[in-house]
Amino acid sequence: MSLSKVKHIVLVLSGKGGVGKSSVTTQLALSLSLAGHSVGVLDIDLTGPSIPRMFGIENAKVTQAPGGWLPITVHEADPTAGTGSLRVMSLGFLLPRRGDAVVWRGPKKTAMVRQFLSDVFWDELDYLLIDTPPGTSDEHISLAETLLQKARPDQLAGAVVVTTPQAVATADVRKELNFCIKTGIRILGVVENMCGFVCPNCSECTMIFSSGGGEIMAGDFGVQFLGSVPIDPQFLVLIETGKRPRYPEGTLVNGQDISTPAGAPHIEEESIKDAASLMQKYRACSLAPIFSKMTADVVSAVQRANLA
Ligand SMILES: Nc1ncnc2c1ncn2[C@@H]1O[C@H](COP(=O)(O)OP(=O)(O)OP(=O)(O)O)[C@@H](O)[C@H]1O
Ligand code: SF4
């Protein structure tokens, strides 16, 4: 059975598209594997699977083995570096053209979600992160039903809900949280993305929207607030193209100088997304400390859920 060797399954959900769900999934996956965990990412965002692009593996070809589809390896575990393995399976690998959105009707989508949960051969994994379609659509309901059927109760750790300050102001996030409560999926916490803007000239973060809504809403539902993530244009360039983030001289994050080192290649020459350089570049992004704290909080929430 494809999920039998997975220890913890974490869903990444959002009530609305484009709020940064795939970006958060990617960062959680990288931070978990940097912390030594073996990680799988299952991308079933049928509205436009973007995970392969974010890991720089869009052209990878999945193969079929007797145990099921074999996920693509982003990198193997490296015990000397203390990093865990990272593997990815995405619906994007099966689409005829990269970047296509799936236009199937409900039953076919539902069948595909079921197949993805049962026919991907995952080796031993500490964490399987599932990037889900936005909203509380048919796919969601099908995913929740299938997971509850296929996963052991001790495997399904819960959901991380991603929102933006604007989505908090609408009914979308509350709908998503209510969806989790209704379907019996534990909420590990809420992330508020795109809450401010990191200036490319001085790296000062300005809160361009009214902030704090995500935290208040998390409080209303009695769930953990996992933090606020500002918009960093360098993160966008990195995640979309694999190019190294570049910060002005003297940029400090948590007391660490992350400004572009002298002699670093020009952006045009720096688009290779091999796993090692990608991880190095993510570590050099101003958002890295926020994502690694978020990951530590998710790990603690999963541990608490296991004890409950
Ligand atoms: N904090 C951030 N700073 C800069 N860019 C960001 C940030 N978060 C997300 N983005 C960018 O915003 C866009 C949308 O993000 P992403 O694809 O992660 O959203 P999503 O919720 O998964 O979208 P979809 O609903 O289409 O699956 C991407 O181009 C991503 O690189
Ligand atoms: S200090 Fe930074 S954020 Fe403020 S105006 Fe200058 S460049 Fe923009």
UniProtKB/TrEMBL annotation:
<dbReference type="GO" id="GO:0046872">
    <property type="term" value="F:metal ion binding"/>
</dbReference>
<dbReference type="InterPro" id="IPR027417">
    <property type="entry name" value="P-loop_NTPase"/>
</dbReference>
<feature type="binding site">
    <location>
        <position position="202"/>
    </location>
    <ligand>
        <name>[4Fe-4S] cluster</name>
    </ligand>
</feature>
<dbReference type="GO" id="GO:0016226">
    <property type="term" value="P:iron-sulfur cluster assembly"/>
</dbReference>
<keyword id="KW-0004">4Fe-4S</keyword>
<dbReference type="InterPro" id="IPR033756">
    <property type="entry name" value="YlxH/NBP35"/>
</dbReference>
<keyword id="KW-0963">Cytoplasm</keyword>
<dbReference type="Pfam" id="PF10609">
    <property type="entry name" value="ParA"/>
</dbReference>
<keyword id="KW-0547">Nucleotide-binding</keyword>
<comment type="function">
    <text>Component of the cytosolic iron-sulfur (Fe/S) protein assembly (CIA) machinery. Required for maturation of extramitochondrial Fe-S proteins. The NBP35-CFD1 heterotetramer forms a Fe-S scaffold complex, mediating the de novo assembly of an Fe-S cluster and its transfer to target apoproteins.</text>
</comment>
<dbReference type="GO" id="GO:0005829">
    <property type="term" value="C:cytosol"/>
</dbReference>
<protein>
    <submittedName>
        <fullName>P-loop containing nucleoside triphosphate hydrolase protein</fullName>
    </submittedName>
</protein>
<keyword id="KW-0411">Iron-sulfur</keyword>
<dbReference type="InterPro" id="IPR028600">
    <property type="entry name" value="NUBP2/Cfd1_eukaryotes"/>
</dbReference>
<dbReference type="GO" id="GO:0005524">
    <property type="term" value="F:ATP binding"/>
</dbReference>
<feature type="binding site">
    <location>
        <position position="199"/>
    </location>
    <ligand>
        <name>[4Fe-4S] cluster</name>
    </ligand>
</feature>
<keyword id="KW-0378">Hydrolase</keyword>
<comment type="similarity">
    <text>Belongs to the Mrp/NBP35 ATP-binding proteins family. NUBP2/CFD1 subfamily.</text>
</comment>
<keyword id="KW-0067">ATP-binding</keyword>
<feature type="binding site">
    <location>
        <begin position="15"/>
        <end position="22"/>
    </location>
    <ligand>
        <name>ATP</name>
    </ligand>
</feature>
<dbReference type="InterPro" id="IPR019591">
    <property type="entry name" value="Mrp/NBP35_ATP-bd"/>
</dbReference>
<dbReference type="GO" id="GO:0051539">
    <property type="term" value="F:4 iron, 4 sulfur cluster binding"/>
</dbReference>
<keyword id="KW-0479">Metal-binding</keyword>
<dbReference type="GO" id="GO:0140663">
    <property type="term" value="F:ATP-dependent FeS chaperone activity"/>
</dbReference>
<dbReference type="InterPro" id="IPR000808">
    <property type="entry name" value="Mrp-like_CS"/>
</dbReference>
<dbReference type="GO" id="GO:0016787">
    <property type="term" value="F:hydrolase activity"/>
</dbReference>
<keyword id="KW-0408">Iron</keyword>
